[in-house]
Each structure stands twice: as C-alpha cells, then as structure tokens.
UniProtKB/TrEMBL annotation:
Belongs to the class I-like SAM-binding methyltransferase superfamily. Erg6/SMT family. InterPro entries: Erg6_SMT_methyltransf (IPR050447), Methyltransf_11 (IPR013216), SAM-dependent_MTases_sf (IPR029063). The lineage of its organism: Eukaryota, Metazoa, Spiralia, Lophotrochozoa, Mollusca. It holds the Pfam family Methyltransf_11. Transmembrane segments: none annotated. It comes from Pinctada imbricata. The keyword Protein biosynthesis does not apply. This is Methyltransferase type 11 domain-containing protein. It comes from the Eukaryota. The keyword Transferase applies.
Length: 216
C-alpha cells in the first residue's frame, strides 16, 4: 500500500491526471507553492506592457498574481502546462481574464513550445523544471521564444524538494540544479546566477536562478 501511494503521488506531482490526481495536485500545489509564488513574482520584474509566460502554472495562483501587473497596459500573460486538469483548474479560477484577451492558456510541453520566436519579455516557473522530460531541449525552446535581453526567473524550494526525493515522491523528477543551470547556459542564456533567498513571511529558504536571453 505504501509503495502504491508513493507511486500515485510521484505520478501526479509531475502530471496530474484523473479526478483524484487533479484534486490531490490542485490542493497540494496551492497549499505548498503559494508562498514561493508570492515571493517569485516580484523578482520577475513584470511591466504593464510585457508579454509574459509562466511554465507549469498548476491551479493558477501565479497567473493570478502576475496578471495584476499587466492590467494597466497592453501586456498579455500566457501559460503552458502539461496537465489538462490544471488547465481546467486555472481556467475556473481566472476565466474572466481570458474573455478580455489578457491571458491565454495552452496544454503543451515545454520541450515543444507552440509560440513564435522572440515573443516573450519575461518567463518564469516555480518548483517546476525538475519535472521536465529534457532540460536541454526545454532550455533551447525557452531561449527561442524569448526576446533579446529578456529575463527568465526560476525558483525552487530545494530543501523541500530534496526531502520529497528522499521519501520517494520524485521518481519522475530530476532535481539536479547544476545540470539545469548547465543546460540553460548551453542554450545561449547569459548572466546565469543562482541566489539563496528566504521567503518574506516564513523565512523558508528557496533558490532563484536568473538567466538573460542575450541575442544578436
């Protein structure tokens, strides 16, 4: 029974499916990731006219916060997630913003982004990259769709994720930060910096990785 539960959690952390998977992931993500998301968005530096992409948005907490920075300008927010239930959860949470053309959500994979070259001013993702199937392909795709000198911000609660790994919940994840950073640099990003930070309200530690899409 214990191994079945671990397998269920591991699969649905990476890609929530079905009713119970959706319920578990939605509630787990909101409970565990909200503080990190609240601390991430200010680091992204979203301006009212920016075109912004969130990768792996889950139930939409980050989308909701990011949208507030775009309401007074011509900017637009895009989100991509591999899970249909997460698309549904975020749409239920933020559907009115899709009718006024401020947000667009896509079911898809970061290794094959359905976006034009040089499209985004900002890209961000939280507690997400370690579930990507191929860090190298994902980094190349993100670099492709970002504008010259645009910024990508990656955040991760490293200690919490490593604890989940020890408990057997990260079977379908690769939490190697050094490998991720290496792939980002190989893709063409520059000024790649890893910083340790603490959350404003709880002092819980997290890491932030900045990367600039330097292009000719």
């Amino acid at each position: 029974m214990a191994s079945y539960i671990r397998e269920f959690i591991a699969r649905n952390l990476r890609n929530p499916q079905g009713y119970f998977g959706s319920w578990f992931a939605k509630n787990a993500f909101i409970r565990s990731n909200t503080s990190l998301i609240e601390n991430t968005i200010p680091l992204v530096g979203i301006q009212p006219d920016h075109v912004v992409l969130e990768v792996g948005f889950g139930p939409g907490v980050g989308l909701e916060i990011a949208l507030k920075h775009l309401q007074q300008g011509s900017g637009k927010l895009y989100g991509i997630d591999i899970s249909e239930p997460m698309i549904q959860a975020a749409t239920s949470r933020l559907g009115k913003n899709m009718t006024n053309q401020k947000m667009e959500l896509t079911l898809g994979d970061v290794v094959n982004l359905p976006f034009a070259d040089n499209m985004f001013d900002r890209v961000y993702h939280t507690n997400c990259f370690y579930f990507w199937s191929d860090h190298e392909k994902a980094a190349k795709e993100l670099y492709r769709v970002m504008k010259k000198d645009s910024l990508m911000v990656t955040t991760m609660e490293k200690e919490r994720v490593e604890n989940a790994q020890r408990r057997g919940f990260m079977k379908y994840g690769n939490v190697d930060v050094d490998n991720y950073v290496s792939c980002v640099e190989k893709a063409g990003f520059s000024n790649v910096k890893v910083e340790d930070k603490c959350m404003d309200k709880s002092d819980a530690p997290f890491i932030v990785i900045y990367a600039t899409a330097t292009k000719e």
